[in-house]
Design brief:
Arginase, Chain A, 380 residues, alpha/beta, eight-stranded parallel β-sheet, 8 strands
């Protein structure tokens, strides 16, 4: 029997219950189970598995993006050595994290820190090579973390192929700290590393930021427009004024032509991601994500890659986190495909009426009532 998109997903199926092999897929997802430098709550290394399992409950027809699955979607198997590196690096990082970083000379901690940084470089190189290999095969590639350190190699690979690349960064945090707690590849330093090390990235546009230090604020202000941040408080004000769609349109128009979307799940309201490593009150609603990505398409921009990270099932393995993560991932895939002219959104069942609104009634004026026709008389 052939694949039935309306049927339940087989238990041994791939991402979103699909049978597609990576070589046959248009979109290839790279899982990266890494969270060695997580500074608050660990667990995002289990994010790829949580998303994979929850994805099998996602209906494949989407009212906004149509049928993304028809393009072919596949997730690679997580690499065992990356998971092993994470376990080793996490054990090395813990005493440094518990000390709040290395504040006084300590040869033992400094040795551990150097090894953690080396493991981080290994992960970056592995992601860079894996993403590059699939890009060279003509695939759209997305990274599924893991913490927010994981997509550096992907952004590096894409910025080399698309000089002037714009990064649309959805997050609660600015992630512009220089080597946070001493870790060169900290999840809190991803955008600092991207903007400082990758010349191919032309612009960083941040959305939903609401937890940042003064040093990061100064970094934004002194970037001469290379970093543009739309703080969550500003978006909340736009929402109250009914101007959020206009704000999203302005954000999209200011992006470069080629866009990479880096999505930290904690950019959402934490009600939607309670297990994430560093939840912060406020944030975007689920449908705000589609509104923003729709604006990117309306502005004529092309999404060339993406990541989703910081999804964690939490200590109680709550399925809700993976559920929301899987649905965000499907939206990311759908809007990315549409931006590249692949697929089409469905026709809406309900369309706005083109009739002119009727004139307001005058409550003081009585309506004329037509006389009732006699019984049995045909009406004309």
């Amino acid at each position: 029997m052939g694949f039935d998109p309306n049927a339940a997903a087989p238990p041994d199926s791939g991402i979103f219950g699909l049978p597609t092999a990576p070589d046959d897929a248009r979109v290839v997802l790279v899982p990266v189970p890494w969270d060695a430098t997580t500074s608050y709550r660990a667990g995002t290394a289990r994010g790829p598995d949580a998303i994979l399992e929850a994805s099998k409950q996602v209906d494949l027809f989407d009212i906004e993006t149509g049928k993304p699955y028809e393009a072919g979607l596949a997730m690679l198997d997580a690499e065992a050595d990356v998971a092993a590196w994470n376990r080793t690096a996490r054990a090395l990082a813990l005493p440094i994290l518990e000390a709040g970083g290395i504040t006084t000379p300590d040869a033992d901690l400094e040795g551990k820190l150097a090894r953690v940084n080396q493991f981080g470089e290994r992960v970056n190189q592995r992601v860079y090579e894996t993403v590059g290999r699939w890009l060279d095969k003509g695939k759209i590639v997305g990274v599924v973390g893991g913490d927010h350190a994981t997509p550096y190699g992907a952004i590096q690979a894409l910025s080399e192929r698309h000089p002037g690349l714009g990064v649309l960064h959805i997050d609660a945090h600015a992630d512009l700290r220089r080597a946070y707690e001493g870790f060169e590849w900290s999840h809190a330093s991803i955008m600092e590393n991207v903007t400082r090390r990758l010349d191919g990235v032309g612009k960083l546009v941040q959305v939903g930021i609401r937890d940042f230090c003064e040093e990061e604020f100064t970094r934004i202000r002194q970037s001469k427009g290379r970093i543009v941040t739309h703080f969550d408080a500003e978006l909340a004000d736009a929402r109250r004024r009914g101007a959020l769609d206009k704000r999203f349109a302005d954000i999209a128009r200011a992006l470069p032509q080629k866009v990479y979307v880096s999505f930290d799940i904690d950019g959402l309201d934490p009600v939607l991601c309670p297990g994430t490593g560093t939840p912060v009150p406020g944030g975007l609603a689920f449908h705000d994500v589609s509104a923003l990505l729709r604006a990117v398409l309306a502005a004529g921009k092309r999404i060339v890659g993406f990541d989703l990270n910081e999804v964690s099932p939490g200590d109680d393995d709550d399925e809700w986190n993976g559920n929301v993560g899987a649905r965000v991932l499907y939206k990311l895939i759908g809007w990315t495909l549409l931006s590249q002219g692949i697929g089409r959104p469905p026709e809406r069942l309900v369309t706005p009426s083109k009739r002119r609104p009727s004139a307001p009634r005058n409550p003081r004026r009585k309506r004329a009532v037509a006389p009732r026709a006699p019984a049995g008389r045909p009406k004309r």
